[in-house]
Amino acid sequence: QVQLVESGGGSVQAGGSVRLSCKVSGSSVRFNTMTWHRQAPGKRRELVATIRSGGTTNYVDSVKGRFTISTDNEKNTVYLQMNSLKPEDTAVYYCTLEAKFWGQGTQVTVSS
């Protein structure tokens, strides 16, 4: 059974940093495409960052240069390092494995 558990969310002031973690069990981050999505109140869920098994990454334009997705194969965990946070980054953040298995989400709130 594949399970994903996010952690690391919280409240931060604009300009600050947060690192989200997503611990995976039942499958491997090394051999799957891992993604982070977010959903802000009243908005559609959007894909934020992708990392493929070969290590290539992609980001939505609004976070390029500020967010970094990475994996730790030994810990079987995927991370989202978020720097220079803006109030518009406020959302519930979800990690996924192949966009098939989803975590429960973690709230990130950025105050101005």
How would you summarize this macromolecular structure in one to three sentences?
With 112 residues, the protein is an all-beta fold. The protein has strands at 3-7, 10-13, 18-25, 34-39, 46-51, 57-59, 67-72, 77-82, 91-97, 101-102, 106-111. The protein is built from no helices and 11 strands.
Question: If you had to describe this structure to a student in words, what would you say it looks like?
Answer:
It is a single chain. With 112 residues, the protein is mainly β. It is built from no helices and 11 strands. Helices cover 0% and strands 53% of the residues. Strands 2, 4, 5, 6, 9, 10 and 11 form a 7-stranded mixed sheet that branches. It is globular and about 40 Å long.
